[in-house]
Amino acid sequence: MRHGTAEKLRTLGLDPAVVERIVRGALEEDLGGPDGVDITSAATIPADLAGTAEVVARADGVVAGLPVAAAVFELVGDDLAARGVSDGAVSDVQFRSEVAEGAQVRRGQVLASVTGPVRALLTAERTALNLLCRMSGVATHTRRWVDELTGTGARVLDTRKTTPGLRALEKYAVRAGGGTNKRMGLYDVAMIKDNHKIAAGGVAEAYRRVRRDFPDVEIQVEVTSVAEAREAVAAGASFLLCDNMEPDQLRAVVEAVGDQAELEATGGLTLQRAREYALTGVNYLSVGGLTHSSPILDIALDLRTRK
Question: Domain of 258?
Answer without folding.
Answer: 146-292
